[in-house]
Amino acid sequence: MHAIGDWFQRLYETTGLNFSVFYDAYDWDRYFGGLKMTLLLSVTTILLSLIIGAVGALLQGSPSMLLRLPVNAFAVVFRNTPPLVQIFFFYFGLGTMLPAVEAAGMRVPLLSNVQWAIISLSLFAAAFNVEIFRSGIEAVPRTTLEAAEALGYTRLKAYIYIVLPLAIRVCLPALNNNLVNLLKTTTLAYAIAVPETLYAVKQIWSESQNVFEMMVVLLATYGILVGVLVWLMHRWERAMRIPGYAR
Known about the structure:
The chain is mostly helical. It has helices at 2-15, 25-60, 65-79, 83-97, 113-139, 142-150, 155-185, 197-208, 211-240, and strands at residues 101-103, 106-108. β1 (101-103) and β2 (106-108) form a beta hairpin. α2 packs antiparallel against α8, α7 runs antiparallel to α9 and α8 runs antiparallel to α9 (211-240). The protein is globular, with a radius of gyration of 22 Å.
């Protein structure tokens, strides 16, 4: 690591390209902290959006209108409003309505900006996942569900063990795109001062006056993160492929 830092410091001295994040320990700590926050936001929101999307798709197929209507309304609202507006609504709208709590002799909000960002981004992605899972479920032949019920499966167990695994195989390409978009959308948490990668990089270039260099680092960071996620999703897609049906 010292050799890398020395090389970037010599690069700055000879060319003026100031990639301070690679040779300044303070800048590196801020950048790495932002990267960890981005990973936390991405992993948490991806998992929550998948769970909420799968449950919502199940409720959409319910015979009860009382269960279908709230899910449909949720999907319509969150799919047709900007994610930044949703973050502001949760943080500045609902957040101010919740009671404050005592912590270390100070009154602090019940939910932090990080928690509100996770809630907002998870619901935003889940609204799309509901429709993605629904399309996959509808692609599973009705006779498959009837066969499962004939074998003694309840509707819930048939959904979990038979219908959902088959539906995931169908909807994985669309699901991959939505999860990649979710990773990129985590940058919006910057708007409510969540210290993710964009927030940290903005602090660094404001102090070091190296906007171009830090923008290169930022673009490379998200390019790598998205590339890793795409690779993992493609591995998952290949693992879920049914033998005899591969292209």
